[in-house]
Amino acid sequence: MASLTGVSVGFLGLGDVGRPVLRRLKACGANVHATSRSPALRYKMARDAVNIYKAPNEVNDQVKDGIIFLLLSKQALIDAFLNGPDGLLSNLASGALVVDLGQTSPDATQNYAKLVEEKGAHWLDAPAIGSEQDATDGRLSIRVGGREEDLDRALPLLKEIARDIKHMGGVGAGQMAAPTS
């Protein structure tokens, strides 16, 4: 594992694959700030010494213009975490990079990217393919869509969670290249 000491990372999506991804980033020294709408899950992650918050905008307050990962299983969840008075878009910092590790439709990805870009931030669609064990072992496969300079910025983090990372083109290309699960 490489050192990510001093890197501040936001994380939204603490499901079966999200938790081991978050733990890998934390084990590399990243200062991880996460959120969950579930009080029980917030408690469990706080026991793991993860900085845990009730709402996405609180994660933004910590990460500022850093990198925020989404690993959400449904479009409705992405909508809920992005929009609303306490959503990511309410106070997303200019210069932030949002990396969607979930499988999202290419059309929705294009829409989310536009909303994020309106805030002066950037979007990568980078669906992570693999099991909970793959996430634990850092063996996910990722197909990335978005600007190459944004991929370069996220690459040190992505290399800690994936063994197979390929840039496929502009926003939406990662989602189109990823196999559906």
Automatic annotation (TrEMBL):
Pfam families: NAD_binding_2. One of its GO terms (molecular function) is NADP binding. InterPro entries: 6PGDH_NADP-bd (IPR006115), NAD(P)-bd_dom_sf (IPR036291). Residues 9-169 form the 6-phosphogluconate dehydrogenase NADP-binding domain. Gene3D superfamilies: NAD(P)-binding Rossmann-like Domain. This is 6-phosphogluconate dehydrogenase NADP-binding domain-containing protein.
